[in-house]
Amino acid sequence: MVPCFRRATLEELLPTFALSTTGWGFGLDSAWPKILGYEHVGIIDGVTVVHTRPVGGFRDADLSRRVMQESDDILAKFECGQRMVTFAGIGPDLREASLTPEELLVELVRGWQYLFDGCPNALRWLFDQQQCLFSAAPYPVSGLPTSPGSRAKSGS
Fold it and tell me: Which end of the chain has the least Cβ crowding within 10 Å, N or C?
């Protein structure tokens, strides 16, 4: 939404802006990390941005179609996809939050609650994006997981 770059990075990525014929640049945010070798890329989600239009929709159906096609074309050109995975976070104390994938998912759900109220399907989307961080451990069938200091009741 509001990309920021070091000068050298901007110089490297500047030619990609010409790939957007609509001016929206959908897909560039997924191409840039690949171009940069997935190094030194991050998202700062602690900056407030005021949206002047509703988020997530276009009033013009033709523009929507062209923007989505542009995104598909950019993703195909760079052989990448859009995956919105959160790997880590920084706490209010500006230190890295040391969280397990499960704890991180809980924090993400808390932070996104306002979105789920209007669009419950966003919860499934968030989980699907984060799922790659979880091990493929078998589903427990002999009872509920327990945490220290609590007892789980066995199901029948």
Answer: C
Which tens digit of pLDDT belongs to each residue from 96-123? Answer: 999 999 999 999 999 889 888 888 999 9
Residue 147 has which token pair?
Answer: 């945490």
- Beta strands of 15-62 (E only): which ranges? none
Report helix angle 101-118 to 121-130, nearest 10: 160
CA 95 vs CA 38, 51, 89, 123: distances in Å: 22, 28, 8, 27
CB-CB contact of 107 with 97 (8 Å): yes
Domain boundaries, the chain: 1-43+59-82, 86-135
**Residue 90: beta bridge partners?**
96
Which backbone phi and psi does 23 adopt, to 5 degrees? 90, -5
CB atoms within 10 A of CB 31: 21
Cβ–Cβ < 8 Å for 80, 34: yes
